[in-house]
Design brief:
The structure is a single chain. The chain is α/β, with parallel strands linked by helices and about 230 residues long. The protein has one domain: Spore Coat Polysaccharide Biosynthesis Protein SpsA, Chain A (Alpha-Beta Complex), CATH 3.90.550. Helix content is about 40%, strand content about 20%. It contains nine helices and eleven strands. The two termini are about 20 Å apart.
């Protein structure tokens, strides 16, 4: 949980962002599972205080999700809705959102299976701009286990615990400059593999490391992976 001391720092950061018209592009990839998508979006609406444009990229959902998303677009809850003509896989969807949303100074990508916690985006943008790396909230208990098992050094900055790791971070937040340095996710690793998380994430983290771009988790954020919460994925 983010401390009150750190919240005060983040509130000042948010205030400066509003005064200078800074925003993040918050990109959410959806495919069916409306009940999870709704949970993800509601957590964003409730807990995201840093200024953002919400860009939803739908991978040709067939369960009624598209009409629900259109309703949210009509009510201006979603700023931009991109409907893909078929399911191209998650990483193609990520790239579509990143290419559209790169007009903002910071970019975040989420799957439709994440519950975000208060001040998560402010914290991630704060450190993405200062560390010039890929920054993420840990969403699964196993990530914290890896940090402990590998004895990753943890540092405190403005009251928040940051750990630099040697693998990819999910879901990443980055500045526009970092995106321009690393580039987009690979879409040619294998179409079957691209239906699942992990393969292109790993390659992206390796590419970042080769370019000298660090990968970091903010341990005080408390975002959750819905399948893990429901016991469907350990």
């Amino acid at each position: 949980m983010i401390s009150q001391q750190s919240i005060a720092v983040l509130k000042k950061y948010i205030s400066r962002a509003k005064k200078t018209a800074q925003k993040a592009s918050l990109i959410v990839i959806t495919y069916n599972r409306w009940e999870w998508t709704e949970m993800t979006l509601n957590s964003i609406f409730k807990n995201t205080f840093f200024p953002y444009d919400l860009i939803v990229v739908d991978n040709h959902s067939t369960d009624g999700t598209v009409e629900k998303l259109k309703q949210l677009r009509r009510s201006n809850k979603i700023d931009t809705l991109i409907l893909l003509p078929k399911n191209h896989g998650v990483y193609v969807g990520f790239n579509v959102g990143l290419k559209y949303g790169n007009y903002n100074s910071c970019l975040s990508i989420l799957g439709n299976d994440i519950l975000v916690s208060p001040y998560w985006l402010a914290a991630c943008c704060f450190f993405a701009s200062r560390l010039k790396g890929l920054v993420a909230p840990p969403t699964q208990a196993k990530v914290r286990g890896w940090v402990t098992r590998h004895k990753c050094p943890i540092v405190k900055y403005e009251g928040m615990r940051i750990v630099r790791i040697t693998w990819s971070v999910v879901p990443p937040v980055m500045t526009k400059a970092t995106l321009q340095k690393i580039g987009y996710f690979r879409e040619d690793i294998g179409k079957r593999e691209l239906s699942f998380y992990g393969v292109a994430d790993t390659e992206y983290g390796e590419r970042a490391a080769k370019l000298g771009v660090g990968t970091y988790y903010i341990l005080d954020t408390d975002c959750k992976h819905i399948p893990c919460m429901l016991g469907e994925l350990q």
